[in-house]
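Summary for the lay section of the report: proteins are chains of building blocks that fold into shapes. Here we show the chain for Retrotransposon hot spot (RHS) protein and then a coded description of the shape we predicted for it.
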Amino acid sequence: MWRNCVRFYVALWRQRCAPIVEVSGAAVRPRRVCTTPQLQLSAGAGSARWPHPGGLGGMLHRTGVRMTPQRLPRQAKAGPPSPRGLYDSVFNARWSHVVEFPKGEMKKKAVRMHLKAGEPTQLWEFKVQGMTFELDDAADQFCAPRPRLMILSSEQGWPYVWMGAGSTNPDFFINCEVERVWRIVQGDLTGAFDTEDFKGLMLSRRVLLGTSGVGKSMAAGSYLLYKLLHYDDKKLQVVVYCFWEELAYVFDKTTRTVAEYIGRKDIAIVMGGLARRGMTGYIIYDVFAESPSPHFSPSAAWGMIVLSSPEVSKYQGWEDQVGAMRIIMNCPEKLDVKAMCAWEMRDKPAEEQAQYWTMVKKHMNEIGPIPRYIFTKDKYKDRVVALDIALQLVGASDVKQYFTQGNEKLWLSENPTHELVKIVRAVEDGVETFYNKPICRRLGGETLDSV
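The coded shape description reads as follows.
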């Protein structure tokens, strides 16, 4: 038996042997290995070159001692090629918008929605408030006709379509809350904020928090992707959209191409390589479902925003590590949802449009203004079941520990039962923070009644 083992290793060794040559002083650099060139030697007839031209990996010394393999630099492996034209589909997305016209007076007052093609001529105006932006109440934006909603349509959809999350919608909505997120990120890139009183915090690192579903149903990540692709190419050459640390779409603005990478190591490697080449980028990191907070930080020259629900385990570790600042996004308002209904039913008769809005309004009153759940009966019913289960799990001790009781008073909590609350923004000393409020009146009352 041992003779067979010896024969096997000898045969393996002979396969690695090179032709007989005299002692040579030629320097050899193993392929794909960035090391100092070595002298390659041959000693007499029947001997092998040392080291082997391909490196030392798995080779046997003449003494029979197996040499330690020489490590090759790891290179990221790209996943399946992205669909042809994906970059242009996002970059050249088509604009539409909705403006509102108030009509009537007092109790009979109503709002009529009017759909238009193209980008609106009038956008929301914001003013700097500490390290953030807020709507400018003094602006003429509140005079009719005023912007209510914008829509971006891409032939190949948006990130949640590409990764197969069940979404097939080529459109997403932009209300003033989503636009405000972009204005803050843009302000970070252009130096719009005075950082003198906020030392130790990195403006290029942000955490976007909102009611569960902020990255998908409110599409903040998709809008940031679109706007960053249109940002100055000389200042920003790469945009990366990450779904946790397992899937990333890397948009190279210099070549107008998209590459898909799978796995934490490969994603970190490709971003590190781009940074070493002197390219500047921005990462949109979507904390999806049960995924943890990010464990990597890009180059200091790169910006990064994490999209998360308020569950602290999903973002706080990274937030504390890098000194990130928060952006808090409120849920859409009632008129935002009405404008969404006007868009969804734009090709239907007026009677069907009215019936649809009545249904959605009822859903919104029962489960809250989350677009993911209110536009179809099936998703509405599933959400009702989930909320009823969550309601049963909230006991008196939970309310005392996490919530301030009272229908009108905001619920202060960093770790609530997310299904039962919505995020409400507050600005304290120029920095955004959040409170939680019952996601709708029905659930607020039932929660208090249950304890």
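Put simply, here is one thing we learned. The first strand starts at residue 27 and ends at 28.
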